[in-house]
Amino acid sequence: MDHDIKDRSLSQRGKLRIEWAERDMPVLTQVKEKFSKSQVLKGKKMSACLHVTAETANLVKALKAGGADIVLCASNPLSTQDDVAASLVVDYGIPVFAIKGEDNNTYYKHLVSAIEHSPVITMDDGCDLVSAISAKYPEVAKQIIGGMEETTTGVIRLRAMERDGALKFPVIAVNDAHTKNLFDNRYGTGQSTIDGIIRATDMLIAGKNVVTAGYGWCGKGFAMRMKGMGANVIVTEIDPIRGDRGGNGRLPGNDHGRSGPAWGPVLYAHRQC
Fold it and tell me: Which range marks the domain in which residue 123 is found?
């Protein structure tokens, strides 16, 4: 099996990580069981360019259980978990092309490896896979049934490609689904962003002044969690409706929230920004 990972000997630790994550993914477990019986993806080649993490590992395991012949490469070298990549290769027989911290040349070499798998279905996180196929691999593009894109950045790129006539096959904008906004953006990003800040700075959140630029789904989750951890949260927003929500119904230009509800974020509205 062709693959390119850091160290196969990391597989045991990676398997434990994958199994631990699976315990908190009951819906995907049910999908996997259904796929195993129906074999809905039997014989279909898939290439996925995603964050190589324990959660993604369980996703590709479910797809393989459904009969898919799937290859995985990294959409972000900094998020790759080398032990998870090793376990997917060693324990589950899934080709992976991902190394944490890989350089630019290696990243694109891995992307090419996923394309050379000759997929009929793609999964993307940022549109790099679809962009490369559409621009440089017309024969592969012709055979693709469709793809999926799960990020705002990727969907923006796809729409630009569509306007320019450069998009060669249909792609589902998973990012625009309500469940993506309500759960992944609001709760997932809201939590993981704070986790990243704490890991990088080892800083106590309580009592800090925190500014979030924008009160979209990610901003909502971030502001809510920062407030819950004791921070003084300031929201800046150019959209008047979102700004009103950020101020918990108070009018723009208030007293910075000092007289408002204890849990409501402070608001600097569009007229002040």
Answer: 8-179
Q: What is the pLDDT of residues 201-256, one digit of tens each?
A: 999 999 999 999 888 888 999 999 999 999 999 988 888 777 777 765 343 333 34
Are 66 and 174 in the same domain? yes
CA 100 remoteness from chain centre: 16
Burial of 141 (0-12, 13-18, 19+ CB in 10 A): middle
pTM of the model: 0.82
Range list of β-strands (E), the chain: 45-50, 69-74, 96-97, 121-124, 146-149, 171-173, 209-213, 232-236, 266-268
Q: N- to C-terminal Cα distance for the chain?
A: 55
Whether 69 is in a domain gets the answer yes
In a domain, 1, yes or no: no
CB half-sphere exposure, 251, CA atoms < 13 A: 1
Q: Tell me how many domains the chain contains.
A: 2
